[in-house]
Amino acid sequence: MNWRLPFFRGGDATAASAASVAELSDKPLAVRGLTVAYGQKPAVFSLDMTVEDGSMTAIIGPNGAGKSTTLKAVLGIVPRLSGVVTVYGQPLARSRERIAYVPQRASIDWDFPTRVIDVVLMGLVRELGLLRPVNAAHRQRAFGCLDRVGMRDFADRQIGQLSGGQQQRVFLARALAQGADLYLLDEPFAGVDAATERAIIDVLKALRAEGRTVVAVHHDLSTVRDYFDRVMMINVHKVAEGPVDEAFTEDNLQKAYGGRLAANLMDQLQLGGH
Amino acid sequence: MLFEALTLQLGYNATLVAVGAALLGIAAGAAGTFLFLRKRALVSDAISHSTLPGVGLAFLAMAVLGGDGRHLAGLLAGAALTSGLGLLAMHWLTRKTRLAEDAAIGAVLSVFFGFGVVLLTVIQTVSIGRPAGLTDFLLGATAGMLYHDAVLIAVAGALAVVAVWALRRPMTLVAFDAGFAAAAGINVRRVDLAVMGLVMAVTIIGLKVVGLVLIVALLIIPPVAARFWSERSDRVVGIAGVFGGLSGFVGAAISATAPALPTGPIIVLTAFGLFVVSLLFAPGRGLLVGWLRHRRQQRRIHMRQGLLAIAQDLPIYERYTLNLLVGAGLARPDGVPTELGHKRAAKACRDEARWAVARRMHSHEATVSRYDGLRPIEAVLTQDEIREIDRQIAGTDGEGCA
């Protein structure tokens, strides 16, 4: 008798979807033919994407290209019109435990009555279920995650008292608490200062060094080369996918951004493919 | 009489009603907190107003089947039916059309309530059953409540409290960050429906005691008042439960002593009293504490600015600053610093320089974020840390603020 079932998804994959994903790889994330539409207009159209194990992948593209939507559709936050998603060869319902998610900071009410440590403990929600009490070991783990992002001393603060960068690091700590193998981050560097960006990228690189996989929606083209080893360039459709050296080219950028990138910016990006 | 009522000495029935109202209040405050945190407080208003046609229809049905049509459980079942319909209508309007939730609430609330009023008027004119007392559902009445009615309310209230407690985790998570909750595999829609269902249950349990017009107040005022007391959602839920329970208990007790008074308004006024006290006097977010804190902060800032001005030999322009310095014996009324003033100015200057270094040292991030430039640095950092900072200052040419 599983009393968690009514409110926690998972473990209810149908035979049909299991059969159709059997042909897909056991890569951390494989997406085939993903289409999402808001109203009449598709936000993402027939997208294929394969994330390599132990890689750091940047999803880049102009505003409204469907970057965040792709992540949300992969996670089942927004419904998909079509497409198959597998996580480590399994349908999403069977692999929730292996994914951690860092949503956009802007989507949160920061006046919500909750402390930093409570937010991190939310990362343990699947483990705790409805009724299991939070014990010292859970707390210890949450503090450990705060340590990794340098926020341990802030554990008792109400989240609204933190700066934007600190809030982002707390979100990252919550994702760490999920203990996942695949990390999906939605614009983790948006509106944070240089020190926080450094702290976040250090944590992400440490995750990769542990053999975990990171996928981030990213906006700053000038840091793609330093931070990531693979790119997924989209503008509703997929434009390019692959190692930074091969896919992060002027040609592809012009295609994705529709020729809106200034020439001098192109020079600064030290693009691959020449 | 009032004292007897509040201390449960008015007899078995009145006591049971008061306890039932308290349980109802706890459930309402706790369930209402999640509605409040999810920013959907007014949904409860639509739910409660759409119970009225159900009450009318259930009465008619029971009267037609023979009987006086006043069986409480039957009336509440009818209320549950139409408020469920109202909830579904609202849900459908917001999901399937481009109507915003507030517009859907307005539409559902007015149509259902209007229909209910028409039904009640019809019932009064056709003289079927015994409709006396039906209007009690508008404003609530506990006087003359039957024993088994009181038991029904108490048991249902207790069940609602347990349900809120059991679902607190997913409800909190969805209210705070629905996207993350969905990604973690929580069924957000089902949790939202559970919150609505709980609110609906509380509304229906509370129909007889509080009345449908005012039940929204018992769902919303306790959480709003509780929010002044804590920055932790679990505590806000608990405090809201206590406030709701207290309001329900006091309201029912007073109403028992004065049968002419409807219960609902008394409960709501009690809750409002708790709200006013919270608004003014709660530590943390209360207005009085906030005002005092602001004054104190202002005084300390003026004092520090004055001392820094003395240290740098600058004139003091603001009257308020000078008054403070004079009051503390740090300056003469003509603005000339005293001996003590010079000493304290030098110390302020040194602290300022130390803070500047501390701000640059990443290891002090948590401490520095608490920096208000006013606290003596010894109160925040250890002697060793200050020595280290002083060493760094000595390394530069550092003369601090000057």
Overview of the structural elements:
With 274 residues, chain A is α/β, with parallel strands linked by helices. Chain A has a single domain, classed as P-loop containing nucleotide triphosphate hydrolases (Rossmann fold, 3-Layer(aba) Sandwich), CATH 3.40.50. Chain A is built from twelve helices and ten strands. Chain A has helices at 15-22, 67-75, 92-95, 116-121, 125-128, 136-148, 164-177, 194-209, 224-227, 244-247, 250-257, 263-268, and strands at residues 29-38, 41-51, 56-60, 82-87, 90-91, 99-102, 182-186, 213-217, 230-235, 237-243. Chain A has a six-stranded mixed sheet with strand order 6-7-8-3-9-10, sandwiched between helices. Chain A has a four-stranded antiparallel sheet with strand order 2-1-4-5. The longest helix of chain A is centred in the C-terminal third of the chain and has 16 residues, at 194-209. The model of chain A is unreliable at 1-5 and 11-16 (pLDDT under 50). Chain B has 402 residues and is an all-alpha fold. Chain B has two domains: 2-282, ABC transporter involved in vitamin B12 uptake, BtuC, CATH 1.10.3470; 288-395, no CATH class. In chain B, helix 3 crosses helix 5 (72-96), helix 3 (43-49) runs parallel beside helix 6 (101-126) and helix 12 packs across helix 13 (233-257). The A-B interface holds A 6-10, 72, 75-77, 93, 96, 99, 101, 103, 107-109, 112-115, 118-119, 122, 125-126, 128-131, 150, 153-154, 158, 162-163, 166, 174, 178, 184, 195 and B 37, 39, 166-167, 169-170, 172-173, 175-177, 179-187, 190-191, 194, 227, 230-233, 235-236, 362, 365-367, 369.
Summarize the helices and strands and which ones pair or pack.
The complex is a heterodimer of chains A (274) and B (402).
Chain A: H1 15-22, E1 29-38, E2 41-51, E3 56-60, H2 67-75, E4 82-87, E5 90-91, H3 92-95, E6 99-102, H4 116-121, H5 125-128, H6 136-148, H7 164-177, E7 182-186, H8 194-209, E8 213-217, H9 224-227, E9 230-235, E10 237-243, H10 244-247, H11 250-257, H12 263-268
Parallel strand pairs in A: 3-8, 3-9, 6-7, 7-8
Antiparallel strand pairs in A: 1-2, 1-4, 4-5, 9-10
Helix pairs in contact in A: 6-7, 7-8
Chain B: H1 2-6, H2 12-37, H3 43-49, H4 52-64, H5 72-96, H6 101-126, H7 136-139, H8 147-166, H9 168-176, H10 178-183, H11 188-206, H12 215-227, H13 233-257, H14 263-281, H15 287-311, H16 319-327, H17 339-360, H18 365-369, H19 383-395
Helix pairs in contact in B: 2-8, 2-11, 2-12, 2-13, 3-5, 3-6, 3-11, 4-5, 4-6, 5-6, 5-11, 8-11, 12-13, 12-14, 13-14, 15-16, 15-17, 17-19
